[in-house]
């Protein structure tokens, strides 16, 4: 059977053979909630008309940058929940960014709603109801708070609990604060602005998770300084600096700061953030295990960034390869309960703390 046609979750033995891993890894995977905190495929719908309802192959670049993910492949691989992200074009005027968000939110909501095996979810109870029906629970997120940043009232354009989380800062500076990216302007202070602080407070009030992926390191701590201490904060898609030093990755101090809020950290799959060549699923496990060893098993999650213009490891290019990561974590000594936490349980704990 080809990877283009098999319903992987219905054929566990064939799945194990295709990946060359023990069936036990497939069994552990299928018994788990499998939740990805960052899928960026919708950006290609906007730019190239990429049809999220169609099962795609690996595309002209063999899975580099995009063609990694779509709704059929997510469902066939048994991913039970994910945050589907609306990314922000930072080069447009604030008013246009706001209008684009309203339009793109409606478009993504319609795409997800139209699929018979997807349910848009906002809370833990809604996710569990979708799961009980055998449906994929789709959350909606925003990458780049500057989508809604001409005034604090822009956040009121978001329907009630209609956005799970907002990544405050993306790859460029904004009126919220400084990015960790080298694309920032030289000499820009690494701080969260006063408006950024107000923004964090309002996100807390609206029960929208504050996502501190991409933000500058000092601005990261500025955000936590004003963040409601009773609420968890997230970093949905990142690497770990102690495993591979990189401007995109979190230090141990940052890992501990997120764990102290009761939040959690999602590891992404971009090769250049994970390590030097060759990078594999084992490298992703290195980052996850460092989180486990540094702050505990309850704080590691998955945030692939599939289709976010990334190049994943060759053995983690697309959803049906996810059991490779289960097998790798088994080899590191983790049992089924701990693997279930990383693959979904930790996120569900965090979600339940804010949105029951």
What do you see in this structure?
It is a single chain. This protein is of the alpha/beta class and 356 residues long. It has helices at residues 12-19, 23-30, 42-48, 71-76, 94-114, 124-132, 194-205, 217-226, 252-260, 271-274, 281-295, 323-331, 336-354; strands at 35-39, 81-87, 118-120, 136-143, 165-167, 209-211, 234-238, 264-267, 300-302. The protein has a single domain, classed as Alpha-Beta Barrel (TIM Barrel). Strands 1, 2, 3, 4, 5 and 6 form a six-stranded parallel β-sheet that branches. Strands 7-8-9 form a three-stranded parallel β-sheet. Helix 7 (194-205) links the parallel strand 5 and strand 6 (209-211). The relative contact order is 0.15.
Which descriptors apply to this entry?
six-stranded parallel β-sheet; alpha/beta; 13 helices; 356 residues
Write the layout of secondary structure elements.
Blueprint: H1 12-19, H2 23-30, E1 35-39, H3 42-48, H4 71-76, E2 81-87, H5 94-114, E3 118-120, H6 124-132, E4 136-143, E5 165-167, H7 194-205, E6 209-211, H8 217-226, E7 234-238, H9 252-260, E8 264-267, H10 271-274, H11 281-295, E9 300-302, H12 323-331, H13 336-354
State the name of the first-level CATH class: Alpha Beta
What's the alpha carbon Rg, rounded to whole Å?
19 Å
Largest sheet: 6 strands, parallel
Number of domains as seen in the coordinates: 1
How many angstroms separate the termini? 41 Å
- Would you report the number of β strands? 9
Number of helical segments with 4 or more residues: 13
Strand content: 5-15%
Low-confidence stretches: none
Overall structural class, as computed from helix and strand content, comes to alpha/beta
Nearest-integer average pLDDT: 96
Q: What is the H/E string?
A: HHEHHEHEHEEHEHEHEHHEHH
